[in-house]
Task: structure prediction
Amino acid sequence: MNNNKVIQVEGLTKMFGDFTAVNAITFDVDKGEIFGFLGANGAGKTTAMKMLIGISNPTSGKANVAGFDVFTHAEDIKKNIGYMSQKFALYDDLTVKENITFFGGIYGLSRKRIKEKSDALIEELGLEKVASQLVGSLPLGWKQKLSFSVALIHEPKIVFLDEPTGGVDPITRRQFWEMIYKAANQGTTVFVTTHYMDEAEYCDRVSIMVDGKIEALDTPKKLKEQFKAATMNDVFLKLARSPSPPEASGLPKGKGE
Amino acid sequence: MSISIKNISKSYKSVIALQDISFEVKPGELFGLIGPDGAGKTTLFRILTTLLFADEGIATIAGFDVITDYKKIRNSVGYMPGKFSLYQDLTVEENLNFFATIFGTTIEENYDLIKDIYIQIEPFKNRRAGKLSGGMKQKLALSCALIHKPKVLFLDEPTTGVDPVSRKEFWEMLKRLQQKGITILVSTPYMDEAALCDRIALIQDGKILEIDSPKAIVKHYPKPIYNVRTNNMYQLINSLNDYKFNHSVYPFGEFVHYTDSRTDFNPKELKLYLESKNLSNIEIEKTEATIEDTFMELAK
Result:
């Protein structure tokens, strides 16, 4: 396998009964790339991502993530990736330090390493004063930054961010993106799903899923040229606007969306 | 005035949720309350819909005082809370019937008002509300908030977590409701939705930063603003942050929005500086400020 490709997907498909949630998607993601994974509610994003992080078995196709096959080595994938979601990130009733220690432990870091990581991380995020406070008492923006750092604690090759920056103020959101750029610059691949089309503009490349298929994949600049659109939002609307909403299939949609 | 708010303040123990908020919403206006989580938007909505007492200040809705005339307000406003609050184990139709009945009306009587919206979920009218997708729940909640033909409609973050297609449709629905004479106060954390309102209030940490039409707010931006792009985004941000003349440096998609602290700023000088930092493919172009730029400048 090409060492620069940390995600390789070919014809990946997931069926629920006779409903095709993900329909033969094919794409690669490079080392250190910020890859945006977009789609309307019910387009299949969450299902696709669950396969990539090793928690849902594909029906057919091929996928290799962080050097491991999703069919045979799902457990190895979990150890070699980081994951952060807007809905579940940290334990509100543990302190900042306890959360870091907990996640460091889960990922098998030594006590010594956890201590080093914990000190470095608290200093970098400027959380010295609140290190012994419960995470639940922190502002949302701080939680998000901490949650991102914790997802990187075991230095994974790839970090998956599921709708990471909803709800925070625009300045904090940008500080968060600066952290993402930094991680990518250090060689970590960042895989982001988002509803915010302005957020898609930050990605190196973006794929857009419609009804289970990847209908577009390129840099935001090229996609805007291709669809003669001023913004990624316009690109998305041109692609995703379908006459029958996904509801019409009559199936309940993925929870993450 | 449809909504009149004067010097409203509210604290929860030591946390100040709202600090001396005043503004008015005219009859038939589509007014946006724009701000991040924790800005105080929901607290204000709860005060205006008579579900919470303010510590200080007065507010009237359609001429009724939120404290003394709360019953009249409850009959004449529609409220769609941010959290889905319909009965999950009643069907779509049962929910709508329930809300019509408690307001002493029927679905038929005001069907005209909700028709556009309800027609999209009518095929699923026998499905339990809890089993609906996010977009359908949102349409049902809006139908229920409208069934008694309210004069004023309160929508607390109706588009949060909703994809761009559904968001666009939702705003089109709001525009149509506005044309039917309903005053709408809507809150959102999405800055791009601000442009769709007649007037907006930018709110952060319980304080109003500015109130005006979206166009006027953008015009008030105090400095020329530049799009900067190079071959490496992360190094560009670091270099600009280190540049001693910077006033603000904010990543904006494929660009960085840059403003300079000097009045006689010359982009060529910045280009030379960035070249000295080993950056290449440097582009520096003047651009227009957005609502988000204004928000960040005011919140700085």
